[in-house]
Structures are given as C-alpha cells and as structure tokens.
Amino acid sequence: ENSRIALPVGSNLDRFIMRNQEDFPYASGELSQLIRDLAYAGKVVNREINRAGLAGITGAYGAENVQGEEQQNLDVAADIRFTRALKKGGEVAAIISEEAEEIIDLQNPRSKYIVAIDPLDGSSNIDVNVSIGTIFSIYRRVSPLGGPVQMEDVLQPGKDQVAAGYILYGSSTMFVYTTGKGVNGFTYEPSLGEYILSHQNMRIPENGSIYSINEGSFNSFPEAVQDYVNTCKEREYSARYIGSLVADFHRNVLKGGIYIYPSTAKAPNGKLRLLYECNALALIAEEAGGAATDGKGRILEIEPSELHQRVPFFVGSKAMVEEASN
Ligand code: AHG
Ligand code: MN
Ligand code: MN
Ligand code: MN
C-alpha cells in the first residue's frame, strides 16, 4: 500500500500532485508539470465538448486518419488542443497520437518525456451526446537527451510507463491517473475550474457480473470468446456496451466487469490500439487490482513493433479476465 498520508477527499489535483511528487525524491517537477498540462488541456476540450452542438463542431471533419477512420471535428480539435498544450508545457519531446500517422516531434530535444495519446476516444458517440474520453500514456525517453527522438523512445512496452490516465467527459468530467502508486480519480468542478479528489485509491472488484463486448461481431469471434460470452449469458450477467472504451472501462472499474474487444473478421487483431488505448488502461487496471491481456499474455509485456498496431483487449476484474483469457 502506498505510504502517503491519505489526502482528504476534496483536495484538488494540484495539491495531490505536489504531495505525490514527495514520493519521487529525485523528481524535479517535470512529470508533475506534464500531468498539469494534460489536465489543463482536458478542461479546454471539456468546454468544447459541452458546447459542440452550439459551436457547430460536431460532425465529420472531412478527412480520414491513418486508421482509415473518418475523422470527426472533435477528434481534430482535441488533437490540436492536447498537442498545443504539451508543446507549450515544454516537458514532452514527442507525441504519438491516434490522429497523426507519424511521430509528432515537438522540437524539445532536452525534454525527458514521451506521450502517447488518444485525444478523443469514442468518436462515434460525439454527435449522439454519449460519453467520450481521452486516454494517455507517459514514458521517459531512452535515447540521449539533446539528440533526435528515436523509434526506441516511442515503441516502449506498457510496463515501462511512468504514468497513465484517462479523462471521461461523462455526466461529470473526471481525470483518473496513476504514477505507479495506485489510481486516483478527480471530478471536475467547472464553477471553480478545478479537479477535486473524489475517488481515492480506486480498486476494481476482484469479480463482477457485467460484460462489455460488441456482440454484432459474435459470429466471427474466436471460439474461446464465443464460449465465454455464452457462459456470461448462462450466468445471466448484465451486458453493457457504450461504444466508448473509456466509459465502459470506467464503469467496470467502479462496479466490476470485463471489457473485450477480440479479434473479429473486420479486425483480425482487434480494433483497439496498443500504444494509446490498451497500454494506459492496462496499467490503470493492474494498479487498481484488475488485469489486462490480449487473450493470452499481459498487455504490459507486449513489445510494440509499430505506432498504430492493434491488439485484442481483455480488461477489467482479475477473475473475469483470467477466465476469459486462455
Ligand atoms: P476511437 O473513437 O478513439 O477511434 O475509439 C473507438 C473505440 C472504443 O472507444 C470503442 O469501445 C470501440 O472503438 C467501439 O468499436 P465498435 O464500434 O467496433 O464496437
Ligand atoms: Mn478513432
Ligand atoms: Mn479510442
Ligand atoms: Mn480516438
């Protein structure tokens, strides 16, 4: 258990980060500043999401991203906001983004950190006013500071993350993150412009009775996944699938449950991307006592080979992920 004196619920993210920093004796504050920069960008994106319908920034942007997906205006707007905030913050050397085919080199060669980000997760839900999210991973550069960013800096396994988190733009907006000492959730109070500590030391229930999977692709699931889904039905579990990974994941963390995006005919390696979706949520899951696999081994052990690679994703309550993974 982390030794830190529990902060009273109600303290804000800034104070929590400061207290957290004491746990890293040699920290010189760059990581703290980086987390603040992400939290700030989240406030800006939150405001744009809450008024998207009025500001005419819903709908399609009119271009495709490297995934072959039709970019939504908010995908692009969020990508710009996070990239700009990290560039200005000065703590990040390069960004990997779902919305950028290549590494975004921020020309800060002396900066220690790399960020992998899904600026807006759940794009299909933007125009229908359903919860969406942002997912981020933070790594330390491995190549010499001052030199150009290398592929080895951005293709690191999830177990080497320095921090990871997500923002959920839901009925309330939440900032949830870990630096390897447990998971803490902050609820945004717009009237103060502050994230307030609301979910201290989040733990995923060991077991659960909620399963989240897009059964539209049932016929092309691997047989083991079909068997597991049928078992969930025999046990009369609840099926909950929002279609926004962050929202489905967050509910399963609080209530217990499993989210699966398996191999399908349309997506033989699954749809979710290792670098900016699966690794971050896998670290959060394990830090909260849950589990995350690709159906065989730990997500966090996978050595990435390309920026936008996809992996099958099984994440949530430990007992459920272990049963569903063979
Ligand atoms: P993104 O909007 O960042 O591309 O991610 C969407 C993902 C994830 O959020 C969601 O769970 C999944 O796509 C839904 O995919 P299906 O519509 O194929 O179920
Ligand atoms: Mn997308
Ligand atoms: Mn996504
Ligand atoms: Mn996205």
The level of helicity is: 25-40%
Order of helices and strands: HHHEEHEEEEHEEEEEHEHEHEEH
Shape: globular
- How can the largest sheet be summarized? 8 strands, mixed
Bound small molecules, which ones?
2,5-anhydro-1,6-di-O-phosphono-D-glucitol, manganese (II) ion
Number of helices: 9
Radius of gyration (CA) equals 19 Å
**Distance between the terminal alpha carbons, to the nearest Å?**
30 Å
Name the poorly predicted regions: none
Strand order of the largest sheet: 4-3-5-6-7-8-9-10
Number of strands: 15
What oligomeric arrangement do these chains adopt? single chain
- Proportion of beta-strand residues: 15-25%
Can you characterise this structure?
The protein starts with 12 loop residues before the first helix and ends with a helix. The radius of gyration is 19 Å and the shape is globular. It has 9 helices and 15 strands. The model has no long low-confidence stretch (mean pLDDT 94). It has helices at 13-21, 30-50, 52-55, 73-89, 151-154, 223-234, 245-255, 274-287, 318-324; strands at residues 60-64, 70-72, 92-97, 104-105, 113-121, 132-140, 163-169, 173-178, 183-189, 194-199, 210-212, 238-239, 258-261, 291-293, 313-316. It is an alpha+beta fold and 326 residues long. The strands form 3 sheets. An 8-stranded mixed sheet has the order 4-3-5-6-7-8-9-10, sandwiched between helices. Strands 12-11-13-15-14 form a 5-stranded mixed sheet, sandwiched between helices. Helix 2 packs antiparallel against helix 4 (73-89). The relative contact order is 0.13. A hairpin with a 5-residue loop joins strand 1 (60-64) and strand 2. 2,5-anhydro-1,6-di-O-phosphono-D-glucitol binds at residues 69, 98, 118, 121-124, 214, 243-245, 271.
